[in-house]
Amino acid sequence: MRFELTKEFIDSLCEAIELKDEKATLDLIEKLHAADIAEIYDELDIDEAKFIHLLLEDEKSSDVLVELEDDVREKFLQSMPSMEIAKKIIYGIDSDDAADIIGTFSDEKQQEILTHIDDIVQAGDIVDLLNYDEDSAGGLMAKELVAVNENWNITKSLREMRKQAEELDDVFFVYVTDDDNILKGTLSLKKLLLLSESINIKTACNKEVISVNVETPSEEVANIMDKYDLVALPVIDSIGRLVGRITIDDVVDVIREEAGKDYQMMSGISEDIESTDNVLVQTRARMPWLIIAMFGGILSSRVIYQFTGELSFLPQMAMFIPMITGMGGNVGIQSSAIIIQGLANNSLGIESPFKKLIKEFLIALVNGSILSTIILVFNLLTSDSYIITIAVSIALFSVILFATLFGTFVPLILDRFKIDPALATGPFITTVDDISGVFIYLAICKLLLGVLG
Amino acid sequence: MRFELTKEFIDSLCEAIELKDEKATLDLIEKLHAADIAEIYDELDIDEAKFIHLLLEDEKSSDVLVELEDDVREKFLQSMPSMEIAKKIIYGIDSDDAADIIGTFSDEKQQEILTHIDDIVQAGDIVDLLNYDEDSAGGLMAKELVAVNENWNITKSLREMRKQAEELDDVFFVYVTDDDNILKGTLSLKKLLLLSESINIKTACNKEVISVNVETPSEEVANIMDKYDLVALPVIDSIGRLVGRITIDDVVDVIREEAGKDYQMMSGISEDIESTDNVLVQTRARMPWLIIAMFGGILSSRVIYQFTGELSFLPQMAMFIPMITGMGGNVGIQSSAIIIQGLANNSLGIESPFKKLIKEFLIALVNGSILSTIILVFNLLTSDSYIITIAVSIALFSVILFATLFGTFVPLILDRFKIDPALATGPFITTVDDISGVFIYLAICKLLLGVLG
User: Fold this and answer.
1) CA distance A397 to A371
2) Which residues of chain A are modeled with pLDDT < 70?
């Protein structure tokens, strides 16, 4: 039942498209899931994809558009008149997907599309959703849900539910509200099926309901759904009224995106790119941090320049520059990564930042002692310069201390000031550790040269 | 309804525990979700946690154990007799959780616990699950599910369902099988509620069912559930018989773990640790890559040693060592990260590895040209050594080319040989790029000194 995209498949599809053979094309894609067709579009040029798209049934073609990557979808829709977007695409899809699609257009075009939506309830839902920050519960939720009044009994609820649920894709929970639409509880469909029909909803429902406010940030929504193993989560406004529900599939996307973002930050990539993006897009995403790192390199070179005198006297000093900068970078990345992951997963516990720094200091002492002892023994056996032998060990120890504390401290501070702590990874940390590392190392060499030389 | 763990809460809880005040302790935790209580255990020492645990009802206490981190749970259970584990903990929890818990014990203890389980069906399910690789669909799935025969009608199915579903937590789908238990389709509970009661299941069910084999790797399971927005996924054996089902909450854990693992690999951390782990655990997780990186540093120092003659003649050569190694590391990490994320998300598309290398080569040409031109202009304006000015630009260009291709090539090769490509990130890439970077740079300096000097 599952489809695997192969080069052969794309080749025969392209052949059918080139021949304008509608039947052969449809035969190839008709049975595929919308997500698979969206994946196929990625491999085609825009005209080929459009040829396929016109062959799909209305509902399937909207589903495919929902599944497309943002950039592909934009290309797709930019030439389409507002009326067609409203009648053919927005019609029949869930309010959250509709808002996501409309949200990518200019304000003017949004207005145009909205006026063409016949279903006033749907249009109203979309307008409501467009007002929320896309990184909040309001931006994630859909307005479509099944709600029953706490004073109804099971029979009446089932009847009402049948009415409300007809147009919904997946219903797993029924939400229970009072006369003012205040959320009071939830009821799983399973319970609805199992209970005797005369029981009152108020007694049957689960009142310990976990909900979020429309303004809860999406990262927190993801953490809550993950922690409590939820499949759907009701969203309430500031006075407790039920306004929407978030389903787990949207949150899986949030989790993947967040994880991907942190990973890219650490790799020094400034935009969300994939290996299939073209050379220009990829260069633009990689260049900013490389330029920053290069200026960091220039700063390092100025630091080393100050020690040219010592270097010409003892050129072997240069030998350990890569080790010192490399170790500083590695240690700094380790420390910052642990803090950043802890912040992202909300797993830092209740330890105070001060206690964390103390603990990192201890770790740095242990790591620094072990590693500088190893290199001390190695250099005693192999090096002919006592000054370098001593300087390397002291510098390595100091650099490990500095890089550990700096790597712990910076993300904590950034987080305190509500800046994404993941900024403090990758090229930033390694560049700062490079500059401070060479300075510490060469300054110690110079000092020892002055004392012992 | 949501609980936030604070230092004040832990303090008052610890006070109640110290006074052995059972009522005050229960008052504090009774209403909390099992996941919250599990989080609290993380902040307590083992005796405090045990005091709380004995106060919980049987079902709640099993739920808390399921939610605990593996290491905390192990501490908790190691002193408990097999009989108690079987009767108090395993009893009443889902087969997948039961198998996860039992799987952490020695074979001998597993046998002991299994013999104490009264419910022979549950014991059988657990034995079945223990046989699967924990990173496969078989290791993720639970045996508990609701299945109906394709030849039944809705009324009979509802009746059967009521019987089967009673002991299940969440039921969202009913699986449809034939007389040989071969999976034929699925039916959502919503559809069950909406359909007329006399309809035959065969006609009502969705036959385009997406399923996985017991041996499908968990990463692939996660990708499938994410791509098709599934809440539950049936698992079949090699001849198509329905053997279990995977729910989205378990897959969210897989996605988080995979993302966390890649992130930790990139940060050069060899075990799954958190900032709350103690100094010893953290040191053990950080030390391996640091030692490898240090030996990389020693290799770099040997490379530089070969150029001591040139360095004593022109000590300014040392100035740009950190820039060259730093840029090599950054470029290499960028390239490897894009490939590794593409492999993890299954988004590399159908481009062949060869085409990817060609594209990366183009990106490297563009990046290398831009950056080496910038540094050329800068050095022309500020440096007094033409040799260094030219050498830095040529070396930077070459290092960017090398690091880009190496960072792309290695994860692709590792993946081809079924080794986790994420190994090719972090300290490994930066260390290799450091060594090759200093060699390229100093060799070019030496060459130019020979020609121009």
Assistant:
1) 8
2) 1-2, 167, 169, 453
- Residue pointed to by tokens 């035959």: B200
Which pLDDT belongs to residue B444?
95
Query: In the prediction, which pLDDT does A453 show?
Result: 62
CA gap B453, B449 in Å, rounded: 4
Test B10 with A350 for CB contact under 8 angstroms: yes
**In degrees rounded to 5, what are phi and psi of residue A245?**
-145, 145
Domain spans in chain B, listed from the N-terminal domain onward: 7-140, 147-247, 279-452
Instruction: Give the number of residues written for chain A.
Output: 453
Low-confidence ranges of chain B (pLDDT < 70): 1-2, 167, 169, 453
Query: Does domain A7-140 correspond to CATH entry 1.25.60.10?
Result: yes
pLDDT at A237: 94
Cβ separation of A326 and B325 shorter than 8 Å?
Answer: yes
Residue ranges of the alpha helices (H) in A142-273?
Answer: 154-165, 189-194, 201-204, 218-227, 248-266
Q: Report yes or no: B443 at the A interface, CB cutoff 8 Å.
A: no
- Look at B430 and A330 and tell me if their CB atoms are within 8 Å: yes
Residue A361 contacts residue A293 (beta carbons within 8 Å)? no
State the ipTM, two decimals: 0.83
Q: Mind telling me how many Å the CA of A352 is from chain B's nearest CA?
A: 9
Q: Residue A418: what pLDDT?
A: 87
- The sign of the dihedral angle between the CA atoms of B25, B27, B33, B34 is positive
Long-range contacts from A77-80, C-beta under 8 angstroms, 24+ separation? A77/A101, A77/A104, A77/A105
Considering CB atoms only, which of A209, A318, A356 is closest to B311?
Answer: A318
**CATH top-level class of A147-247:** alpha beta
* Residue (of B392, B229, B277, B414) closest to B340 by Cα position: B414
Class of the CATH-defined domain A279-452: mainly alpha
